[in-house]
């Protein structure tokens, strides 16, 4: 199914956007939550994520190109799908529903109605903030949380509220400085895009009637706590020309107003750049991110002083993967009562067995493959460990699906070996290698990461001797595998050089008691220390 993505309006004043960078190219596979592009608005440069899955069939706006809001940005659909009719000209199939049809059916813009009737006059320094359209499909938003209350001082860049869209809950920052004079949409209320969200201005300003007048001009803007929302048209409001109340952070030492986006201001502070020497390329001369990145110090004797030892941070946006990892592991750690059991294994026989196995042609078995096989066989003997908790019962899985944690650039993925107890060493090794490769290339399908009943996390290959893991819900346990270490050991009452490995089992105490976990580790130890027993 074809999905047409238009340039979103990412702030309440955004009229056009610039594609700073595409993170995918035509033909690439897109998953829901992938960051499609970085879009530069009149306020900041923001990551724009895809809310659809499919193949990127068309890019409508090239890097560095600026277009109006609602212009075709991209098309996602099934591979080889015909989209020629959508791309050709300004096809009606790429337009929003309310714009389709003949010109005779187009409603008169509200801005024209205001001009003909009673335009709203707003006092000097007052800013009316409307519900922004934070995704290309958003028609309404819900205020999940207000971070400010009426009477509070608001600085440019402060997070005003958290707004829940049809796709996600997002932080909404203020682009103005002043006092919060009015809140138009209460927490938990939903309202159409362009409804009055808040009013900011100088303390004590009389704003009587602004909210009501704004609604009466549109004649359609309403707030509601239900999902039934009427169609509305954005309101265009006339303002008196006035000097805005601004933060001293956005003025020069001489008090001159500097128009700059929050992101550009942050970069300039980090680099110690004098804003008086920067020429803005944004709307109305606004300084934006690329102006700071491309800035070259003047060479006419004036120096751009870069301080030494300035405290700074690099802001790295949380990817969807990191957000999911944080959410799920947080839930696991704080909901499941974890406890840990640790054993140290004698690996001399395992090392000799692996060497013998790998002497056969076309066979390459790793210690991790041997551990996965041993876990699968031990789980068959201890089914309570191969379980998960529900509010009403404990489910004992009759099948054994082992997840193998794989580190990737953005975090951690856990591909799953289905029916691992029925696989040979060689089959386990081949499957793990294939799934790990897919994980690192972000090619894993949801089915390949779903359904694990037990998880193995191996950091021994990175030289980590011992560690603990957080249980991968809904599993009841996860095994942490350390490195094989050569060290002095006592054998038959004599000091000798041996090879040992530490395993730590994290258990959910709701389903796995201490004795159960200990018995599982005893069986696991027997299999790994004497691999020949796994062939019996």
DSSP helix fraction: 10-25%
Number of helices: 10
Name the CATH architecture of the largest domain: 2-Layer Sandwich
Portion in beta strands: 25-35%
Rg is 30 Å
Characterize the overall form. elongated
Mean pLDDT: 81
Largest sheet: 7 strands, mixed
Give the beta-strand count: 28
CATH homologous superfamily caption of the largest domain:
Chloramphenicol acetyltransferase-like domain
Within the CATH hierarchy, at the fold level, what is the topology of the largest domain?
Answer: Chloramphenicol Acetyltransferase
Low-pLDDT runs? 90-118, 217-249
Distance between the termini: 52 Å
Secondary-structure content class: alpha+beta
Tell me the domain tally. Answer: 4
CATH class of the largest domain: Alpha Beta
Brief characterization of the structure:
It contains 10 helices and 28 strands. The chain is of the alpha+beta class and 536 residues long.
């Amino acid at each position: 199914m074809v999905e047409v993505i238009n340039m979103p309006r990412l702030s309440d004043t955004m009229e056009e956007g610039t594609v700073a960078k595409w993170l995918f190219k035509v033909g690439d596979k897109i998953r829901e939550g992938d960051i499609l592009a970085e879009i530069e608005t009149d306020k900041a440069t923001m990551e724009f994520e895809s809310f659809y899955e499919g193949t990127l069939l068309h890019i409508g706006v090239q890097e560095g190109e600026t277009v109006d809001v609602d212009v075709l940005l991209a098309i996602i659909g099934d591979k080889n799908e015909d989209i020629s009719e959508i791309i050709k000209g300004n096809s009606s199939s790429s337009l929003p529903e309310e714009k389709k049809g003949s010109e005779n059916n187009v409603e008169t813009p509200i801005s024209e109605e205001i001009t003909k009737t009673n335009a709203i006059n707003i006092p000097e320094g007052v800013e009316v903030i409307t519900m922004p359209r934070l995704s290309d499909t958003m028609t309404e938003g819900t205020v999940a949380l207000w971070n400010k209350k009426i009477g509070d001082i608001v600085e440019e860049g402060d997070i005003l509220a958290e707004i829940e869209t049809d796709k996600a809950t997002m932080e909404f920052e203020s682009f103005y400085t002043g006092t919060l004079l009015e809140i138009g949409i209460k927490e938990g209320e939903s309202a159409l895009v362009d409804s009055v969200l808040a009013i900011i201005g100088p303390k004590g300003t009389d704003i009587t009637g602004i909210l009501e007048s704004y609604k009466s001009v549109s004649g359609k803007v309403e707030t509601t706590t239900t999902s039934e929302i009427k169609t509305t048209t954005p309101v265009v409001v006339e303002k008196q020309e006035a000097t805005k109340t601004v933060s001293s952070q956005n003025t020069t030492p001489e008090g001159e107003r500097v128009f700059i986006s929050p992101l550009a201001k942050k970069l300039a502070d980090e680099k110690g750049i004098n804003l008086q020497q920067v020429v803005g390329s944004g709307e109305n001369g606004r300084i934006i991110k690329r102006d700071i990145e491309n800035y070259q110090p003047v060479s006419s004797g004036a120096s751009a002083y870069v301080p030494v030892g300035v405290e700074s941070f690099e802001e790295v946006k949380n990817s969807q993967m990191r957000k999911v990892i944080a959410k799920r592991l947080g839930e696991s750690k704080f909901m499941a009562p974890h406890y840990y059991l640790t054993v140290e294994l004698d690996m001399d026989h395992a090392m000799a067995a692996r060497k013998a196995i790998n002497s056969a042609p076309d066979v390459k078995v790793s210690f991790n493959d041997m551990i996965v096989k041993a876990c699968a066989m031990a789980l068959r003997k201890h089914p309570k460990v191969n379980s998960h908790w529900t509010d009403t019962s404990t489910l004992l899985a009759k099948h054994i699906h082992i997840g193998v944690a794989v580190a990737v650039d953005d975090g951690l993925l856990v591909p799953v070996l289905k029916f691992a107890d029925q696989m040979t060493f060689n089959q386990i090794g081949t499957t793990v290698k294939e799934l790990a490769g897919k994980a690192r290339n972000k090619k894993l399908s949801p089915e390949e990461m779903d359904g694990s009943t037990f998880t193995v996390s191996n950091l021994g290959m990175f030289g980590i001797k011992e560690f603990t893991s957080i249980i991968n819900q809904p599993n009841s346990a996860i095994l942490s595998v350390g490195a094989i270490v050569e060290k002095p050991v006592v054998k038959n009452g004599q000091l000798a050089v041996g090879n040992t490995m530490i395993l730590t089992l994290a258990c959910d105490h709701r389903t796995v008691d201490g004795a159960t976990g200990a018995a599982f580790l005893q069986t696991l130890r027997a299999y790994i220390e004497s691999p020949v027993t796994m062939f019996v």
